[in-house]
Design brief:
The complex is a heterodimer. Chain A is 44% helix and 21% strand. Chain A is α/β, with parallel strands linked by helices. By secondary structure, chain B is mainly α. Chain B has a single domain (3-120, 135-279), classed as Orthogonal Bundle (ABC transporter involved in vitamin B12 uptake, BtuC). In chain B, 73% of the residues lie in helices and 3% in strands. Chain B is globular, with a radius of gyration of 19 Å. Mean pLDDT of chain B is 88; it is low at 289-293. Classes of the chains: A alpha/beta, B mainly alpha. The A-B interface holds A 40-43, 45-46, 49, 181, 208-211, 213-216, 218-220, 222-223, 225-226, 239, 242-243, 246-247, 249-252, 267, 270-271, 273-274, 307 and B 1, 5, 8-9, 12, 15-16, 115, 120-124, 127, 130-131, 133, 135, 140, 142-145, 214-216, 218, 220, 222-224, 254-256, 258-259, 262-263, 265-266.
Chain lengths: 384, 293
Amino acid sequence: MRKITAILLAVLMVLSLAACGSKTESGDSDTIKIGWVGSLTGEQAAFGTCESQTLKLLVKQQNEAGGILGKQIEVICYDTKGDAQEAVNAAKRLVAQDKVCSIIGPNASGQAIAMQAVLNEYKVPDIATVATNEKVTVQEGGVLQPYNFRICFIDPQQGNIAASFIHDYLKMNEAAVLMNISDDYSQGLTKIFEKSFTDKGGKIVAEEAFTGGDTEFTAQLTKIKESGAKIIFMPNSYQEIINIAKQARALGIDATILGGDAFASDVLFDAIDVLDGSYVINHLSLNDPELEGFRQQYKDEYGQDAAVEMNAYMVYDSFLLWKAAVEKAGSADSQAITDAMTQVEVQGLTGNIKISAEDHNPIGKSGCVEQVTKDGYLFITKIS
Amino acid sequence: MGVEYYLQQLINGICLGGMYALMSVGYSLVYSIMNFSNFAHGGVIMVGAYVGFYALTSLGLPFGMAFIVCGFGSGLLAVIIERLVYNPLRRRHAPSLYFIISAMGASIFLENFVVATIGPTPRNYPTIFANSVVKIGNLAIGLDSLLMIVVSAVSLLILMFIIQKTKIGLAIRACSYNEKASTLMGINGDLIIFIIFLMGGVLAGFAGMLYGMRYIVKPTIGAVTNKSFVAAVFGGLGSLPGAIVGSLLLGVMEIFVASWKSNLRDLFVYALLIIVLIVRPSGLMGKVTEDKA
């Protein structure tokens, strides 16, 4: 009899332990966990650092205001080191170990695309900040990625904006391209730009490429110089463009530079002597006085010298969208939040945001072109 | 594309090769005496680039002074690394594999140290020559490119002079031939090692400064220093003339490959490394035929 009691007790204990386990797994806790992934080190570290700091600041403010659904928010940030494989690992850790209900980030298309399988497996939604490649939300063959969303416009729009700007606004018929062959973003933009520009009757006089991590561009630039192009489209990161511009000017090339949104950064102005007069396609105009409020909050938190990148505003809007979705869902259940994503509409810093149910992209986002000058960004024109 | 185009590419190549040369002699110097590849050298170059940046901006030094500060800052760092990292290993007569692993550790340490203290945000050097370009016909040579070639040439000539014509140089050559026998003959091995790290470090500082003028400065400086190591192997690790010739050839070949098909550039450089190691491990001018790690 004592033996049976002992066994029964043991079984009971095991069962109660299991019950405990399942209870925490269902997410029935006092906090809502949100994850962030992005580059805290490597090429894009400045963007990633700004993103994670923004999210932490927003979460802090929201918690002080009482949290969401009466619960406090907990934010967990992991570094992707700018690497797709690291992004997959980080996403896995967030969904499997930390059990977050949603993820914000990353800022790069290559990493966002790599994370798709993990998100689909664990059914956790992700809002990419500035991952502009089409395939982030809709894979080849038009397959919608059910858990991938984004807050920014997509590459084709940027390629089209670049083509319209050069052809229709600057009235130039010839352009050169210098692109990064190992980068999804750069290749996507180049393809659309070239198609759009030639459709308008323009001519691509030189198309040169380099691989990620390269710092020496004189070989390609010398070829571009031979082509006599007066404008060079560079769908590359600001670091690459600064390197390129320094070497271009030293080779006596005075062609105008046009970059995509990856070109926009406060670091540009350190190299203004080689970049003065360049154009940037952007998600929004950083000079917008409406942004000043948040910019100041950020600087109050992280110091007056802290660079507020474009990414800060994209994370801000991602957070607003997520918050609205959680409130609409009425719980921290990832599937419910996913379903609510396309049903809410928020007024963000980058405009009105409504996510299309068909392609999970924001509907009708316009872009703007700004000029890099000694006095900062100069708003040139808005193109949609 | 006329003759000018190819001349322009040649100048681009010499410029790049000159910078590789300043970096690769550091690898070669250490290898010639201590028989290991000092991968921490890349980190020293990176720190040198930062020293130059702060000398020009925070300290507001004129360009020439900044150059000297940069050289000596890096020289000091190289010596400190030798004292803290390699010296204890030398005392224990550790195998060269231990040195290589420690060197890699030191390199990663330096990178992360800079990330943690200065931060990952890239820095850009203030303009030194305001984009002045020397034009010869259609040929354009930036003043900074010209300076790069001149600085590399002068520093390398001084280095060669020290190695070939001075007593210290004689001692270094003796040590590189046979360290044990040289120390038995009364040469102070520690002093020689101190001097080669100092010289390698100073050149690394110059290279870092040139790097900063041409590129943007960040903690992960990697690619260029890796290629300068390839140049050292190509020329023959342990041989100074080899490092210089190897660097110039690699720079010029790399530029021409890149101008032909840019995506083949790294493929070419690293394929060359593998081929050299298989076909002619001693490189173009190296005398050492032992394993190169």
